[in-house]
Amino acid sequence: MISDPDVIHVDELSFLAEVQNCALPVLIDVSTEWCAPCRVAAPVVIELARRHRGRLKVVAVDGDACPRLAAELGVRGFPTFLGVVGGQIVARRAGFGGKAPLDAMANELVNHVTATT
Q: Is 66 one of the annotated active-site residues of the chain?
């Protein structure tokens, strides 16, 4: 799992407070320790969290430790990235296709909030 102060780890107990009730848009990274693409994606996720600090909250969910939460989020494989605005999932990406798609997703989340406020 990602170990960085800009990425918040959530589980079933903290999900509501950290994601559902967040005023900022949220990028969720659902991954596992054993997943090679998840490990490759981790530095990109950290970079996005740092670059968008204060405009986008980035959280990580361990799919092995939180299988019920992963299932509730509709995760079928790892990594899965979800974009949440106002408590609603507005974007979903299964798999890691490189930096550009995640960067675009993060930018869309930040711009979505800017456009609606």
A: no
Partners of 101 in the β-ladder? none
Tokens of 110: 């930040």
Catalytic pick from 7, 28, 38, 106? Answer: 38
Residue written as tokens 């670059």?
51
Model's pTM, two decimal places?
0.93
Tell me whether residue 38 is one of the annotated catalytic residues.
yes
Q: What is the mean pLDDT of residues 102-107?
A: 97
Domains, the chain, in order of start with CATH, read 7-116 (3.40.30.10)
Which residue of the set 8, 35, 65, 113 is catalytic?
A: 35
79 preceded by a cis bond (ω within 30 of 0) = yes
